Amino acid sequence: MQRDFKQLKNRKFDVLVCGGGIYGAWTAYDAALRGLKVALVDKGDWASATSSASSKLIHGGLRYLETFNFKLVKKSLTERRMLLQTAPHRVWPLRFGIPVYKNSRIGAFRLKCGLALYDFLAGDMPKTQAHQYHSKDDFIKHFPCLDPMGLMGGFTYFDAQTDDARFVLELIDGAISAGAVCVSYCEATELIEQNGIICGAVLQDKVNDEALRIEASLVVDTTGRWSVSFQNDKGSYRLTKGIHLIMPKTVTDEALLLTAQSDGRVFFVIPWYGLTLLGTTDTNYEGDIDKVTITSEDIGYLLGEANHVLKTTHWTGQDIIGKFAGIRVLQQSQDKNPSNLSRDWALKTSPNGLLSSIGGKFTSAREDSAIIVDVLCNQLGKPSVCQTFGKTFPWLTHTDYPALLDSSLLTAEQLGIDNDSAVWLVRRHGNRITEIFQLCTENPALVKRIRPELPFIMADFVFCAKNEMTIHLEDLLRRRIPLLILAKLSPDEFNRLANNAAAILSWDADKTQAEIAGCLQNQDIDWDFEK
Ligand SMILES: Cc1cc2nc3c(=O)[nH]c(=O)nc-3n(C[C@H](O)[C@H](O)[C@H](O)COP(=O)(O)OP(=O)(O)OC[C@H]3O[C@@H](n4cnc5c(N)ncnc54)[C@H](O)[C@@H]3O)c2cc1C
């Protein structure tokens, strides 16, 4: 994957997709597979906004059953099922536990009914995936971190997890292979109209500071929270903020769905690259959409609620390893409580023909994007059917996933890569893992982990820097390999990684310093001075 702004020049496109989060990625991929001439641009890195700040769940959303949104749950569960088959490296099973305490807001009977409905809406599933009730002793064996006081038992149920930023990247790579021109750090600054109808846009190359007028028969706005300014339409939707904290390891292979004591909201404790992802919040947001900040109230809420139910933690701010914030775009409603607002997706057509994707979920973005592409094809007079349903993911040409996993683990062992890192390598790269093995064969020093507690090896770092359209240091250290989120790096470690990246990307000393400064400016880094 290489960035090439020149490819946008002197061509007329059928479709220009603005915004390379999950909605833009699926739209560009499906449209390119259907034979349209597609350009996809993002003003930053791929998935640099909400699509790398989600809870990383591919799920139906158990809690939406409480608001009777069965349609959304069913749709998402259908997608979950398909993704587990078409992308077993990208989407993997994750079992959740829900403890039942004496004073739980939702008692065991209601929970049992909800989980039975959740399983039913998921369609045919193996018995092993169905929800289960566990006695108190058994449940504590699954989750020794829980406070046993008042615990009566608990349920476990099936859902799935992903790495959201890599999910988007893989689709962008697929779109490029299908013929789309995909350029990051390229902002659509103005829409061009002819007789009141959009016929292109002005694009600003943010790497070489060059502007370009691009012709496109149709333009799709998948800019997420920036849609408001893009369409010049205030008022039809509402923004809410959700934050996550990365905490030390608490759960192993199973996650927890917990209920907050203070307001009855649900929040998650999820295993993530060997650590814990704690989230999320849901508060109305009216601040700067370009710089979303995490407040001490956000942090206090999550730590307080977690400490309330996790007896082994007593977490303080000192224990926070990393943090990130995302913004939900929700349809406007009179309801004051953000958690009650619908997560439904909508496609809006403006009088000038601009198609805007509003709201939605990471899990169901494929199906929603297929609707966008249906509309595009109809308007272009090229009706066609969706190409992404049931299609194996771009980085999985190997159809027998268990065989790929087994053979990869064996090769990894022979090369001296530890088992945990090898499992994550398969998840992160699919069958491209052979290229990582090649790097390790050429230079055995690359089998070493970057940090002892994280399953990333140096060969992964080298591969991502070289092959994954890494433009800035932050792209590499935050989304390709999220070290800035998953570790408290020491200044020495950070500089060493920056210099490694510089050597791979042929940056001179000035450029490297500028990248370091840029990265530090955008990051809220907690340095680990003990290292
Ligand atoms: C806290 C939180 C947790 C969530 N957890 C889950 C979950 O576990 N599972 C799930 O299914 N869903 C989850 N969601 C929902 C999901 O993350 C979002 O629905 C999804 O990521 C939105 O994707 P998007 O493509 O619409 O927007 P974004 O990812 O925000 O992408 C918009 C892109 O447009 C670009 N852009 C903006 N303006 C321009 C311009 N002028 N020119 C070019 N590019 C531009 C931006 O740089 C950005 O990359 C969560 C959401 C939040 C906030």
CATH architecture of the largest domain: 2-Layer Sandwich
Total DSSP E strands: 18
CATH class of the largest domain: Alpha Beta
Distance between the termini: 35 Å
**Uncertain segments of ≥5 residues (pLDDT<50)?**
none
Number of domains: 3
Determine the structural class based on helices, strands and strand pairing: alpha+beta
User: Biggest sheet: strands, sense, closure?
Assistant: 10 strands, mixed
As a percent range, the share of helical residues equals 25-40%
The coarse silhouette is globular
User: What bound compounds does this protein have?
Assistant: flavin-adenine dinucleotide
CATH superfamily of the largest domain: D-Amino Acid Oxidase, subunit A, domain 2
At CATH level 3, the topology of the largest domain is D-Amino Acid Oxidase, Chain A, domain 2
Mean pLDDT: 93
